[in-house]
Amino acid sequence: MKHSKKTKVLFLLPSLCAGGAERILITLMNNLDRERFEPEFVVVKNEGPFRDWIDDEIPFYSLDCSSIKSSVFKMLKLVKEVQPDVIFTTMVHSNALAILMKIFFPKVKVFVREAALPSSILNGYGLKGRACWFVYKGLYPLANKVISNCSQMIDEFKGLVKISTKNHEILFNPVDQARVKFKTRTPSNPSDPIRFLCVGRLSYEKGYDRLIEHMAVDFKPDFDWTLEIIGEGPFRADLEALIAKYDLSNKVILKGYDDKPWMSASYADCLLLPSRWEGMPNVVLEALCSAVPSIAIVDAGGISDIGKYTRDEDLVITQDMNEFIQQMQKTKHNQNTHSLLPDAFSLPRVMKQFEAMLTA
Fold it and tell me: Would the CA dihedral through 349, 41, 200, 253 be positive or negative?
């Protein structure tokens, strides 16, 4: 059945940096049904490695501005030219820009996706973080839809920020197996060391420092092991210092950034997620899809929602780092060869829900 008019959706990002929020937005955009939707894309600052992820046939615009604040007038001009039915964006500062467009173009629906827990934004980013309180309180109620990626996020908007969540809805992060290019794994060799893995930016919130410190003091397994951390970021020097301090250079390896980590990391026996905070941890979903089980701490936001759909042996969620280390000591060689990803996070399932939101 063909529709007489496609819904034009303008997707907005601050930049094309290699982050989970950027990747999720691009995945949702690329996979819209082209018989029903007409996606277009605009970036505030045309920087970052994700340009190649955007489908070639999607119209691409750059505002060429250094910040969200300086992009308002250019965005107004673009929206007037493109005349979208819907603007969709993610991350709080670009969410604010999109909602401002609704003031000038009241017929345009604005859908904003929150990428991080409000508590992590308000408490973890100083004055900039606290300024987001005014965006949450003053602008989010004006959006047609506020999309959260986990139930804890909506709970925080209701309990911490104290705003109505009538226009809020959960949309889980999808895993696009074709785009991420997972490698089919073979069972681990029992004679090899247990291979632990972390994947993510080297930053404070990821908790790699507390993982290394607890391993140095409390981790006393009866097997040989290694820990590889794939990622890059501002916390590298701190982690290098910790590794040297505890003489773990032959055990803990900082591998650097890899845009296709699961092509080389599917050999892992267990993914570790010691994050101080997260939204919906994509890395756990990708690990499950690549047949790798995970140990995560409950602090990691949407991990509890993932746990509702997984088997106990595929995802262990601990209450603190002491329990985390205890579970690590129980790790066995990974013999899984097929995806462990629950259907709730599959691309077709999430896209069906997303398209229904856009046309509701």
Answer: positive
